[in-house]
Design brief:
Shape of chain B: elongated
Helix content of chain B: 25-40%
CATH topology of the largest domain in chain B: Beta-lactamase
Number of helices of chain B: 21
Number of helices of chain A: 16
Number of domains of chain B: 2
Order of helices and strands of chain A: HHHHEEEHHHHHHHHHHHH
Strand content of chain B: 15-25%
Strand order of the largest sheet of chain A: 1-2-3
Largest sheet of chain A: 3 strands, antiparallel
Radius of gyration of chain A: 23 Å
CATH class of the largest domain in chain B: Alpha Beta
Number of strands of chain B: 20
Number of domains of chain A: 2
Distance between the termini of chain A: 12 Å
CATH superfamily of the largest domain in chain B: DD-peptidase/beta-lactamase superfamily
Strand content of chain A: under 5%
Number of strands of chain A: 3
Largest sheet of chain B: 6 strands, mixed
Shape of chain A: globular
CATH architecture of the largest domain in chain B: 3-Layer(aba) Sandwich
Oligomer: heterodimer
Helix content of chain A: 55-70%
């Protein structure tokens, strides 16, 4: 089976959404980084010029990705995975320290951030493992191995330190669940998140009261439906939940540093400090809020131009969209993401191979997680966790990483139609 | 479920984000964020502060322009620091320190670099300001004092501190607020309201006109002028009389409660707290912990009132029916109770009430007081009845006057003595509190409370809360609580004999040599024992000289209390000062020049040095 381009049907929906997001991204990076010095958009000393370069090179990458034989990705996934682990390990020796984090390899004037590529590698490796005929996601041993595949890169990323990028690996719970992982794990993850946030918001004592009350309510509910109830069954989960509550409180107050606590407290509304730790979030909310219905127009954002929002071309790029393009523009961008993710999910379900489906789910989950955490942070719904907005935030590694991630899937999807 | 879980989560996220964006961008639109919005410049327009007049329409306080050098740290460009410092007349280190502080406060909001330049300094600086980006000169209005007295009454204005800004969002760094005196009490009236303009800036930080066509802009409103009840001439005369003495004079118009004079000594020239030397001068006043010029002795000083308090003992005795006007009481050089004796000075004996007041007989009032307390089954009940009468005279609590300083004094209740004597383990009887009868012991009053009870006696049984506001221009009236008549628990008919006794004080009593020619004055001397602690050692000092008076006897126009710290006996200083003040107010001129010269030239500074000299010293001589 060779590459016969005429017979290959790439999913143009995905590609158009991708191109739209790239365009939105570059326009806003241009606006956020425009200086008084008048140059062309091809000035590669300027941030917008560099991003243009990254975009151009992404297109070349896409051509390569689509040209390579589709079997390559499944066959060499283990190798790719191992190489990416080594690239993460190598950072401890060869990495360059930027802003206190050793996340980069320096090549001349450019930096490469291996953690952005490790996501795709992990998705490939996971797909390969799960799609193996001998793998049964209902067995503990196999669950454990899949879990290892996910956790190893995350553990290598945490000490860079880049906890935000490591947290992204939690997204892999969705493909695993799709492939038969017991719903208990998802539920547990959800419960843990609830316990965590709940404990911080209402405190240990009220949380324990709530847990006990919920357990009692459940018990009463079962009794009324005349089901046999064993009281014993409740003791362990309730005790576990209480234990988690206490450990959350302990971790929050004793393990977290003050800056971490502050970030949570800002979002929980427990603390308002518009000039100190809350500055970013506050300024970004002001910028977005000042947009109104239609926004101030491209390049006309006063908050953006005043450089009041730090890191606006990277993690806070969405605030520029909010200010200059208004409610209509920012909702449009939100919809573009939702459409893209849903499109990937729909395509994933159509995949003929388990490998393709697991990989597609991984792509959708990772994109979704980035979208959720980044936009959530910028509009003040989630604590400050510095991860980029896919295709939009400035940065070569992140753009390439997401492009590779997405277009391998486009290639896998296209291959479904070849053998028809 | 496995197929749609992620789909559901994605859709829910989309809905939540859209809702949040709607909230931020549409629902919760710009007004709340106006002040935080970096692209909107807020410009304030400061109104003139209201003027202050005395009761006769004499101007006491007006305004003068002043110029502050301000800085917005983020706009500062590299500059010739040395030259700029020379222009500002500060050292480079100070300059750097001030700039750092401004940066910490806020890089975007203005902070003061040099406050209150004079006109000539301003002229020299203004033509060079263009060289220093980020710095500008803000014109403000400062106080211009037309008089050199009444600092304790007027108060002063100064820059708001961060604590005030936190509690009162009206104020911004560098703005002025009234501190102390009527400036603080009537801040809201005097200050007016500043105007605000919101100016939209474009992306190059240039002004492009009013924000939203100026719908949020406001115009400044000028502060209202106020007229005080103070008589400036009387006030000034009082301060001259109190020169080189410590204590206070307070005079009321009894029938209205208007404060005619409120002298605290030592005082200072209010102009000291204006201009560039302000902070240096303030520090000097603030750290004078012995003379305490910032401590208003009339309002805050709590003293044993001494003998003037006997008039109250008499009134309560009459009301409780434990004495009548004719009963004569013997005095054998004092009042003996148990094995102890409350001493008295030499005077005719036995005396009835009027003679008792005129001669200030301790034995008489000790007897009346004990009968008052012992009328009840327990001394606890007796003390509490006695106290209720005193509370109705406005004692033991803030009087509710319109000045932002004061103390409650002390009128002890039964609980106070129960604690002190550890009741019920140990019992106590009326004799234990006998000093109260003559205004010593546990009773403490402020001079303001003393003049208030004097005014009550002058009025034969009622008072209006003392107040200093006569009129607010542009407002209908002064606060209603100053037009509310208060009556005491003592029947008006009992006041007449006490008034008569106080009149006899001047005829044959303790103030017979210091009368005011042509005016029927009623008064009462007081000589109050007192103690202080220096380095932990308790020592007795020369007695305080105390005097209360009102005049004329019928239809009184002025009630006065004078307190001279360590002035020895009552008529020596306080009595003379009271007489001079009364004559000055009622006649406008002084007939007894000898007495005036004695007071004007007299000094008690030696007396005040004594406890700090470190040497043994004599008192009361």
């Amino acid at each position: 089976m060779g590459v016969v381009s005429r017979n290959i049907r790439f999913d143009w929906w995905t590609i158009i959404l991708y191109l739209l997001l790239i365009l939105v991204g570059w326009m806003n990076i241009y606006s956020a980084s425009l200086t008084d010095v008048s140059t062309t958009i091809f000035d590669f000393n300027q941030i917008y010029g560099k991003q243009l370069l990254w975009i151009g090179m992404s297109f070349i990458l896409i051509v390569f990705i689509l040209a390579i034989d589709v079997k390559f990705y499944e066959r060499f996934s283990s190798l790719i995975y191992i190489i990416s682990l080594f690239s993460l390990l190598g950072l401890f020796v060869l990495g360059k320290n930027v802003n206190g984090a050793t996340s980069w390899y320096a090549f001349g004037g450019f930096g490469i951030q291996p953690s952005e590529f490790a996501k795709a590698a992990t998705a490939l490796a996971l797909g390969k493992y799960v799609s193996d005929i001998q793998t049964n996601m209902k067995e503990f041993q196999h669950q454990f191995r899949a879990f290892l595949i996910i956790i190893i890169p995350a553990l290598l990323i945490v000490p860079q330190p880049d906890p935000g990028s490591a947290l992204v690996y939690a997204a892999f719970i969705f493909p695993l669940y799709r492939e038969g992982l017991n719903y208990i794990f998802v539920l547990l993850g959800f419960l843990m998140a609830c316990l965590f946030v709940g404990t911080l918001v209402i405190g240990v004592n009220w949380m324990i009261l709530t847990i006990v009350l919920l357990a009692l309510l459940h018990l009463l509910y079962l009794k009324r439906r005349k089901k046999k109830v064993k009281l014993k069954q409740y003791i362990l989960p309730v005790l576990l939940a209480i234990g988690v509550t206490f450990s959350v409180s302990y971790v929050f107050n004793s393990v977290f540093e003050q800056r971490h606590r502050d970030r949570f407290n800002i979002v929980l509304g427990k603390e308002v400090d518009a000039k100190g730790i809350g500055y970013n979030t506050n300024q970004s909310e002001i910028a977005i809020g000042s947009g109104g219905w239609n926004g101030k127009g491209w390049l006309q954002g006063t908050q953006t131009k005043g450089n009041f929002v730090p890191e606006q071309h990277t993690d806070y790029i969405f605030s520029t969209i909010g200010e200059e393009w208004g409610f209509l523009g920012s909702v449009t961008v939100v919809l573009l993401f939702i459409f893209l993710i849903i499109r990937i999910l729909v395509l994933s379900e159509r995949q003929k191979t388990t490998f393709g489906r697991v990989y597609g789910y991984s792509v959708a989950s990772i994109l979704f997680f980035h979208f959720l955490v980044n936009v959530g942070m910028v509009i003040g719904l989630l604590p400050t966790i510095g991860i980029p907005l896919p295709f939009i935030s400035y940065g070569g590694s992140s753009l390439w990483g997401f492009t590779i991630l997405l277009f391998i899937f486009v290639k896998l999807d296209a291959s479904n139609y070849i053998n028809r | 479920m496995r197929k749609i879980l992620l789909l559901l989560v994605v859709l829910i996220t989309g809905v939540v984000f859209t809702a949040r964006l709607f909230y931020l961008q549409i629902y919760n639109s710009s007004y709340r964020q106006l002040s935080e919005n970096n692209a909107i410049k807020v410009v304030y327009d400061y109104p003139q502060r209201g003027y202050i007049f005395d009761r006769n329409g004499n101007l006491l306080v007006s305004n003068q322009p002043s110029y502050d050098v301000m800085v917005i740290p983020k706009d500062v460009k590299p500059l010739d620091t040395l030259e700029f410092c020379q222009l500002l007349r500060i050292t480079k280190n100070d300059f750097i320190r001030i700039l750092d502080k401004a940066r910490v406060y806020s890089p975007r909001l203005p902070s003061v670099v040099i406050p209150q330049l004079t006109k000539s300094e301003y002229a020299a600086l203004s033509e060079k300001m263009y060289k220093y980006a980020g710095f500008y000169i803000q014109k403000r209005s400062l106080r211009d004092y037309q008089v050199d007295h009444s600092a304790n009454v007027l108060g002063y204005i100064s820059e708001v501190n961060e604590r005030i800004i936190e509690h009162n969002p009206y104020y911004q760094m560098g703005e002025l607020i009234g501190m102390g005196g009527v400036e603080k009490q009537y801040e809201d009236i005097l200050r007016g309201n500043k105007g605000v303009k919101y100016i939209q800036k474009d992306r190059f930080n240039r002004d492009i006109g009013p924000y939203k066509e100026g719908v949020f802009d406001t115009l400044p409103t000028r502060g209202n002028d106020i007229m005080l009840t103070i008589d400036a001439a009387l006030q000034q005369y009082g301060e001259e009389l109190m020169k080189n003495k410590r204590g206070g004079i307070v005079a009321l118009e009894p029938q209205t409660g208007e404060i005619l004079a409120l002298v605290a000594a030592p005082n200072y020239d209010p102009s000291l707290l204006v201009g560039r030397e302000r902070s240096k001068n303030f520090t000097k006043l603030y750290y004078d912990t012995i003379a305490k010029p910032l401590f208003d002795r009339v309002l805050q000083g709590e003293y044993p009132p001494g003998s003037p308090f006997k008039t109250l003992t008499a009134l309560i005795g009459l009301q409780e029916g434990v004495i009548d006007l004719d009963e004569r009481i013997y005095c054998h050089g004092g009042y003996t109770y148990g094995k102890r004796k409350l001493g008295c000075h030499h005077h005719p004996t036995p005396l009835a009430m009027i003679g008792g007041i005129a001669n200030s007989c301790n034995a008489y009032f000790a007897t009346v007081y004990r009968r008052t307390i012992d009328k009840y089954d327990t001394p606890q009940e007796g003390i509490d009845h006695w106290r209720n009468h005193l509370l109705s005279f406005g004692l033991g609590d803030y009087l509710g006057y319109d000045l932002p300083a004061g103390n409650k004094g002390n009128i002890p209740n039964s609980g106070y003595y129960n604690r002190a004597y550890q009741y019920p383990t140990y019992k106590w009887y009326s004799a234990a509190t006998i000093s109260n009868s003559i205004g010593q012991g546990e009773v403490l009053l402020t001079p303001m409370q003393m003049v208030n009870f004097t005014a009550i006696i002058a009025n034969r049984g009622y008072f209006y809360r003392p107040h200093i506001i006569k009129n607010i221009m542009g407002a209908d009236s002064i606060p209603a609580k100053y037009k509310e008549k208060h009556i005491t628990t003592v029947d008006p008919k009992y006041f007449e004999p006490v008034v008569e006794g106080m009149n006899e004080v001047y005829n044959y009593g303790t103030a017979s040599h210091i009368g005011v020619p042509g005016i029927e004055v009623c008064g009462k001397t007081g000589t109050a024992e007192n103690y202080i602690r220096v380095n932990g050692k308790r020592m007795q000092l020369t007695d305080h000289s105390v005097f209360v008076a009102f005049a004329p006897m019928d239809n009184p126009k002025i009630a006065i209390a004078v307190f001279v710290e360590n002035g020895y006996w009552g008529s020596r200083w306080a009595g003379r000062i009271a007489g001079l003040m009364i004559e000055k107010y009622l006649k406008g001129e002084i007939t007894r020049k000898d007495m005036e010269n004695f007071v004007l030239n007299g000094s008690l500074m030696d007396e005040y040095e004594k406890p700090y000299s470190g040497k043994p010293f004599n008192i009361n001589h």
